[in-house]
Each structure stands twice: as C-alpha cells, then as structure tokens.
Amino acid sequence: xxxxxxxxxxxxxxxxxxxxxxxxxxxxxxxxxxxxxxxxxxxxxxxxxxxxxxxxxxxxxxxxxxxxxxxxxxxxxxxxxxxxxxxxxxxxxxxxxxxxxxxxxxxxxxxxxxxxxxxxxxxxxxxxxxxxxxxxxxxxxxxxxxxxxxxxxxxxxxxxxxxxxxxxxxxxxxxxxxx
Length: 179
Description:
A 7-stranded antiparallel beta sheet has the order 1-2-7-6-3-5-4. A hairpin with a 2-residue loop joins strand 4 (about 85-90) and strand 5. The chain is built from 4 helices and 7 strands. It is elongated. It has one domain. Helix 3 runs antiparallel to helix 4 (about 140-160). The N and C termini lie far apart (about 90 Å). The longest helix has 19 residues, at about 1-20. By secondary structure, the protein is α+β, with helices and mostly antiparallel strands.
C-alpha cells in the first residue's frame, strides 16, 4: 500500500513538469525565430493588418537602412481579401498599393517570391521602416531560409523609394521654406 501512495505522490510531482515541457511545434518555432533573428530579422507577435483580426500573429521584419525609407503598401492573400481589391500576382491582392510603380525587375522577382510562399503567409506589408511578412510559421528554418535572399533583395530594391519624400534643407514637400 505504501508503494501505491509513493507512486501516486511521484506522479503528482511529475505531471505538472510534463505540462510545462514545450511541444514539438513550440520547439520548432523557437528554433525558427532564433535562427531568423541571427540573420538580422526582427520577429514579434503583433496584430496583423487584416480586417476584423485581433489575434496576434508572427511578424518577420526586414528593416530598411537608416535614411532610406521604403514605400507604404499592404499585399494580402486572396483568402483574406475581397474580390474588390486589385490583383497583383496569382493569389495576392493589393489592400494598399504603393504610389509609385515597382521597377519591372523587382516586380518580377517579387511575384516569383509570392508564388513560392507557404499558404499560411497571409500579408506582406511595407512601411517607411520595414518590410514585413505576416505568417503562421508552418515551416522550419531550413525551408524558410530559401526565401531570405529574395526578401533581402526586395527590401534592398524598395529602400529609398518612399511614397512621400522627406523634406531636405528646411524645405517642405511642397517646396516652400519653413519659418
């Protein structure tokens, strides 16, 4: 009888430890994020720019170099958009288009990248500060690393192409002097 009580107490002690152990998915995602951050990306859980979505989603950011801001746009997968949005590439629509058209070579490379992304990649967003991929992290780092060169080239091609240029030499955007 005492062995039974000892076994029961031992199981009570071990069971919470088993619940705290990370699942295989949690270990894979932690490794993916860690390796991605080693390449210079920032990874954060934030609310994505999707309609009626308040759930935090992983955002992988390639920051533009200082002094070379990027354009503002939001590209959404068809499954997350309406038919009223203008198509860009197969399966993707503009929620907000950049004001200036992309250079032809950059657009071709961008469309090629979009065709290879996993189905859980839902949004590509660009702001003045960074190019962001919003996705549910369905792949490991070995597969994700195949996109890094294309995203880096896209970021480098978009850098210095802001929709609204910043004022220089105390002259605002309209060309008049500041007081």
